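Q: Fold this one first, please.
A: Sequence and structure below.
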Amino acid sequence: MAVLEYAEWRNFSKVLDRAKLACKNSGYEINDDFVEVNKIVEAGATSKSIMDYKLTRYACYLIV
């Protein structure tokens, strides 16, 4: 997201959704290329879990 200069997640999530659709239309399994993971981030005195993705090279290609 940051590498492609998206400032907000909501803007990048639209790109991610289109890439997932392209992956599906190409005959690949979405879950093989876009793996959902949880990431713990520190938020002041507490920490919270946020959703993140591990992407294959093919998934990165579709996003770019």
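Q: Good. Now the second chain.
A: Here it is, same layout.
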Amino acid sequence: MSPDAPASPRQNGRLLLLAVSLAVLLQVVLIVLKGQRYYFADTAEYDAAARHILRGLGPGADFPRAPLYPAFVALGYLLGGVGNLLAVRLLQVPLGVALVLLVAWLGRRMGQPMAGGIGALAVAVAPTLVYVTSMVYPTMLYTVLLFTITALAWSLGERPGLKRAAAMGLLMALAWLTDPIVMGPLAAVLAWLLLAGHGAMVRRVAVVVLAVAVAVLAAGSWSQYHRRAYHSPAVPLAKAQYVLYVARHDPDVVGGHAVRDTTEKEFHPLPLGRFLRRELGLMREQPAAYLHDYAFEFVHFFKPMPDRIQTINQYTRTEARWLVAVYFVGVLLLAPIGLLLGAAPLRARLLLALVPLATAAAYAFFFSQMRYRIPTEPQLLLLGALGLQRLLPRWRADRAAAAPAGGGHAG
């Protein structure tokens, strides 16, 4: 059997059915176990913003986060009753199933349906992805949006089309309205489209320009509304600035940072311009320390063992952390093999790798945590599946070749 030996459509169908069934089962069981409780304090902010939305007031002037997920929570409340966290969690199950199907679809479009099926199964049982489906937190929504953008980018890279470019632009805006950090991976995906896509350069440029134009128009509409309603920026930077302040001033929480910022004794959020000027000043004054902190956070983004967790509950105890660590060590071992040796085209593997790398590069300017990595894990899992597909047939072939020699020696 060659490394690229195709599986039959029936095998792929069974694998996908198993993946979807496991995804639904694991997600629903965990959601039922969680019930109406919430386990992280940030959920209270989304709850309050959703209630504001249902009263026709928008998410609120003091809401420090992007607005799309509060609207999602409001939809759950509309369907299940205000304050019904169980309804919100169940509303996320279709997102988890969609992610499984998208991974299988992209694997097939990259010419490796078996790897797509393996990747889909891995997504279905990945402890981090199962868990975030049960959180009243935007991670699963953002994960699905980011992977859909990745899949659309591959489709556009194979055959540019204006309708799909417009759809990608809309998804880009929705992702930004879910988590503005998406600007990092979006820049990488758009650069990949320009440099690695098929078709004439003029068509690739047209696709990128249209996608960006649609994204700016859609996101700008929200920004204008927010400025008129609240007289403040659409997506405040106070939260990101605060975690950066903690990283530099509270060694008990983070530790390891070398930059010394003596400009402020207490935290005060700055307007974007002043914030950027301060960071550029620190870069000039402490280049070695700044580079150290950046590299430190970039590497930490891929750390298997979860840390920097402030909330203590049954889902953050040591056993749960070890489960996540063991799972991600496997991902870290297989994803590079998939990147270097996977059966899909090199440009396909580069697209999958660019998303987590660009996300890590964006977070490294601030503060990285395991939960920030989760939205990029489907790309890593598909890469890992491409690596596993390369390894397993060879391993089986080696065993088959070794069996006669071993058998003769035994006789």
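Q: Anything worth noting on the second one?
A: The first helix runs from residue 9 to 34.
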